[in-house]
Amino acid sequence: MKKKTTIYDIAKKLNLTAATVSRALNNNLKISENTRKLVHETAIKMNYEQNRLALALKSGKSFNVGVIVPRIDNHFFASVIRGIEDVLYPQGYHVIICQTHDQEALEIGNINSLLNLQIDGILMSISNAKLEHIDSFNNLLKKNVPLIFFDRTKDIKGVSSVTIDDFKGAYDTTKHLIDQGCKRIAHFSNDRLLEIFKNRYLGYKQAIIDNGLEFDENLVIETTSKVEEGRKAARLFLDMANGPDAIFSSSDFVALGAIQEIKAQGLRVPEDICVAGFANEPFTKFMELSITSVDQFPLEMGRTAAQIFLEEVKNTKEKRTEKKVVLTPKLIIRKSSLT
Amino acid sequence: MKKKTTIYDIAKKLNLTAATVSRALNNNLKISENTRKLVHETAIKMNYEQNRLALALKSGKSFNVGVIVPRIDNHFFASVIRGIEDVLYPQGYHVIICQTHDQEALEIGNINSLLNLQIDGILMSISNAKLEHIDSFNNLLKKNVPLIFFDRTKDIKGVSSVTIDDFKGAYDTTKHLIDQGCKRIAHFSNDRLLEIFKNRYLGYKQAIIDNGLEFDENLVIETTSKVEEGRKAARLFLDMANGPDAIFSSSDFVALGAIQEIKAQGLRVPEDICVAGFANEPFTKFMELSITSVDQFPLEMGRTAAQIFLEEVKNTKEKRTEKKVVLTPKLIIRKSSLT
DNA sequence: CTGTTAGCGCGTTCAA
DNA sequence: TTGAACGCGCTAACAG
After folding, report:
1. Which residues of A touch B53 (CB under 8 A)?
2. What is the pLDDT of residues A71-114, one digit of tens each?
3. At what angle do helices B33-45 and B7-14 cross, to 10 degrees?
């Protein structure tokens, strides 16, 4: 095991002190141009690389931030992460990505592990809004570790967040379905303890009411974001006597499942039932029967979240300023809802 | 900023030494059961959490491993990562995920950054096989940092790898297309400096030859793994006088693009042209016209890579033993190639 | 301009 | 069984 070269090694070689080397390397002003250059050169020659661990231990900052998402193999979250990286990498930060797979224990565990790693902040999209989680968050806040929510948030005092206007996204989509002539629009929702799903539900409901249709709670069903769940949910409705003529799903994956099931039962999309999803996952565009969806501008969401983090990390002393950024979503109309 | 509690804090409170506390916390044998219990209790009471940075600095092990992939928003890589996590989390390791987006500079930059973070090893799927990269790898090896390739490898002496039998996957797929009656099978390849693409090409070629068909180099085209590239590549062939009656693509995404273009030109899949991809991405199954593809067992690939890492990390002293694990792929036949 | 000293939090000698 | 002292690699405060 070849030992890595430290500033001491290069100090010894140059008959200097480690402190001087450190200063030279950091381009400290009070150093002669001569030694500065000399140090830099021999550093390169000796393959020196700064040990960020030591730096972190010393400074109390690790220059690592944790990003926690339900899962990464989904275009939306992957894009948000990309946006975060865009902003944070140039600032010298590293991004540690953790997945919860929607599992409560993993979510809490990840938070604690990241804390042990002395990360400088956590950007996350929560997958669960149970009480124990709120405790974890409070724990974080007490330690004054910047915490920023994106997309899937829970309204917690003192926590900044970046979301889209889910209400509007849902309202616009529902309105579009109504404009297409649909009268009984079902909604596939998800855990409404999470703000996004609550707001999509509310936007849907409001559009129904505003347009003089009858709001029927029986047409609202709760699922997780899996394709298979969409099939199951659709099955329930297709057996109904007075079934829906449109489905607005909170998830593209669930919308896909619904479409599969509708077709499997010999019905047609959009002729018999219109379908719209949410998130604008790439496959919605690629399908032969492209799927109407709502773009959430994930890149911008990630960038914004990262910028908020940078601000919070600077003003660590001042009192926490809660910042809630809301982006505007965009309805993308495709074949699945065009009659 | 509330300071985190250290072993010193709890030592002071108990009129002990930090050393004693450390030993108690680590369940060192030579400690009285009394103090051991006492220390553990007050540690919990004071919300103590080990500072892994200090531990890492001290021990030289960070218990972090880096995983470098071209991108994460793709089911294959996400699944491999999941497999890696499955094995490494229970062992106390954390996984730092980096994306290269197929950019050379990012790939080298990521390796160096991870090194600075004192990671204990790197598991990666390379996106580029240029010479400068080989240098980076040699650099890693010199420092004796375990390096394990998965999927996209470059044959480097002393580096272990986990791959699937790409030759067989390609051979089986091509054979299947031939069995369907296809005579002129095109191949959409990718950078053949990478083993996987080279082997898929070779498997394809061998199947052609073994079955008495004419191998035509003009039917082989190189693309990157983007949907749009598939459309472009297909366009080239569709304009041809004596065009192909089947396409075997090294990438599902490219296969998808090809199908889109074929349809756009008024031809039918599979009636006019059969198409098969590689990787078994979920969308290949979900499409109305499901796409024939090859499953690469990514979870198993990730788990295996992680296990090799664990072995290498143990035998840091012994000489590096190169281990090449090859998994067997599975052809999944779907509508796009069933005439 | 540069050297000395000290400390970040921990584990590990060597003594007692 | 416990304490004292040291070092991991680095930087910041204080001298000079």
Report:
1. 53, 56-57, 62, 117-118
2. 988 899 999 999 999 999 888 888 888 888 888 888 888 888 88
3. 120
Residue B318 confidence (pLDDT): 56
Closest nucleotide to the alpha carbon of B8, via C1': C9
Q: Is the domain of A195 the same as that of A145?
A: no
Tell me the three state secondary structure of residue B293. strand
Based on the fold, state whether residues A204 and A179 are members of the same structural domain.
yes
DSSP per position, B218-260: GGEEE--S-HHHHHHHHHHHHT-TT--SEEEES-HHHHHHHHH
- A317 shares a domain with A277: no
> Are B62 and B180 found together in one domain?
no
- Of the candidates A50, A75, A97, which has its C-beta nearest B97's C-beta? A97
Mean pLDDT check: name the lowest of A167-176, A254-263, B40-49.
B40-49
Domain total for chain B?
A: 3
pLDDT in tens, A212-244: 999 999 999 999 999 999 999 999 999 888 899
pTM over the 0.90 mark:
no
Name which of A185, A181, A176, A186 is nearest A331 in CA terms: A176
User: What's the rounded mean pLDDT across residues A322-327?
Assistant: 95
Instruction: Tell me the CA distances in angstroms from B92 to A110, B78, B204, one per residue in order.
Output: 12, 20, 42
Question: What is the domain-level CATH number for residue A22?
Answer: 1.10.260.40
Q: Could you tell me if A38 and A65 lie in one domain?
A: no
What are residue B247's DSSP bridge partners?
A: B186, B275
Read off the pLDDT band of A69 (50, 70, 90).
very high
- Structural domain harbouring A118: 58-163+297-327
Query: Residue B35 CB closer than 7 angstroms to strand D?
Result: yes
Q: Is residue A2 part of a domain?
A: no
Contact between A50 and B116 using a beta-carbon 8 Å cutoff: yes
- For residue A1, tell me if it sits in a domain: no
